[in-house]
């Protein structure tokens, strides 16, 4: 998502100054995967070494006890901010439990950015539901200060309507990573051509109400089905250290190769070469579909089904608790079905690109 935003910023503006800021809802921040990204400035408090030192000496807790919010002091950057582009994914929903302190910090953050003259835009993502009072408070702050809010799907749109909150700032647009081109490198990644790419996701365990054993058993089934059909498969870490640990755990049980530590464009390159993608990561699904590669997925939220609907793909979400997924995988492994799906995805691709380009035009017309 960051690479997609950077590509658009540098396509439209000459040498923009870009600050990466994750808002720090997490007290125990892991290493920032973007610290080495060129063209992105990372605030000092985001640096892994400083975060580790502060956690070691309980700096944030000490400040909190004397009534000082560490994040309130350091979130503001001295430069004038023209745009605050939020690409949090599926963060604003009842799946998360926002504390009163987090709500206050976030509201003040948006207020300060707005006072600086920033245009606050929520780029296409999934939202909702908003049943919890804390979620409603976060959404109220967003609606108060945002210039534009883009939702990726009709279900997210309906959650806003059910909340009886004004939706005059709301727009519908597809996933914007479709414009990110794969970093094609035929010599390095050719060995993955026509293989099955399996993308695990630790959230299937933490948010999907599955035990680790059940999820690993499912992935082992997928690998066996591919082997029976004569297709080589491999595990791709699409995210960070949490998924890497899970990938290696699965590899220890199956002997599968784990591909990890790649850039966003390299990941998209590998996906673009594969025969079939079976992904538990949303953007693994998105990359496959916008590269016209057939895809199946597991799911822990409505956003997966909505993405397949966007690409007019039926029967693509796998229910791990049902043996029906074996039929779905075998069907997509057949050459006739696989080729038809590729053709269908190619035909719809231009209309989705047009929609996302229109979204960016609206953002930068502010």
Structure characteristics:
2 domains, 11% strand, Rossmann fold, 5-stranded parallel beta sheet, alpha/beta, 11 strands, 366 residues, 4-stranded parallel beta sheet
What does this structure look like?
The strands form 3 sheets. This protein has a 5-stranded parallel β-sheet, sandwiched between helices. It has a 4-stranded parallel β-sheet with strand order 3-4-5-6. The protein is 48% helix and 11% strand. By secondary structure, it is α/β, with parallel strands linked by helices. The chain has 2 domains: 2-180 and 357-363, Rossmann fold, CATH 3.40.50; 186-348, 3-Layer(aba) Sandwich (Rossmann fold), CATH 3.40.50. It has helices spanning 2-12, 48-56, 59-65, 70-74, 100-115, 133-145, 154-162, 186-189, 203-206, 212-228, 241-254, 264-273, 282-290, 303-310, 324-333, 335-363, and strands at 18-19, 40-41, 83-86, 119-125, 148-151, 170-172, 196-199, 233-236, 258-259, 276-279, 295-297.
């Amino acid at each position: 998502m960051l690479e997609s935003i950077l590509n658009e910023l540098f396509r439209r503006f000459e040498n923009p100054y870009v600050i990466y800021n994750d808002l720090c809802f997490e007290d125990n921040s892991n290493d920032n995967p973007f610290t080495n990204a060129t063209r992105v400035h990372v605030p000092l408090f985001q640096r892994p070494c400083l975060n580790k030192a502060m956690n070691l000496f309980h700096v944030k807790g000490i400040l909190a006890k004397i009534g000082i919010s560490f994040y309130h002091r350091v979130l503001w950057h001295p430069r004038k901010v023209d745009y605050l582009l939020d690409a949090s994914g599926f963060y604003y929903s009842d799946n998360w439990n926002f504390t009163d302190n987090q709500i206050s910090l976030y509201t003040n953050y948006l207020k300060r950015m707005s006072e600086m003259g920033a245009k606050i835009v929520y780029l296409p993502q999934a939202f909702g539901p908003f049943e919890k009072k804390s979620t409603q408070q976060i959404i109220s702050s967003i609606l108060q200060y945002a210039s534009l809010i883009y939702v990726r799907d009709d279900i997210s749109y309906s959650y806003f309507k059910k909340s009886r909150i004004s939706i005059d700032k709301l727009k519908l647009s597809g996933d914007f990573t479709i414009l990110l081109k794969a970093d094609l490198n035929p010599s390095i990644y050719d060995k993955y051509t026509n293989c099955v790419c399996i993308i695990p996701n630790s959230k299937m365990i933490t948010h999907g109400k599955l035990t680790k054993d059940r999820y690993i058993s499912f992935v082992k089934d997928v690998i066996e089905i591919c082997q029976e059909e004569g297709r080589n498969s491999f595990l791709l870490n699409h995210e960070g250290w949490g998924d890497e640990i899970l990938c290696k755990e699965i590899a220890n049980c199956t002997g599968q190769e784990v591909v990890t530590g790649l850039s966003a464009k390299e990941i998209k390159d590998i996906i673009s070469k594969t025969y079939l993608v079976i992904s538990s990561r949303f953007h693994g699904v998105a990359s496959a579909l916008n590269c016209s590669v057939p895809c199946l997925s597991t799911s822990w939220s409505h956003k997966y089904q909505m993405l397949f609907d966007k690409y007019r793909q039926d029967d693509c979400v796998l229910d791990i608790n049902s043996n029906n997924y074996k039929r779905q995988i075998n069907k997509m492994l057949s050459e006739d079905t696989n080729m038809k799906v590729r053709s269908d995805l190619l035909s719809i691709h231009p209309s989705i690109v047009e929609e996302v380009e229109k979204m960016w035009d609206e953002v930068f017309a502010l």
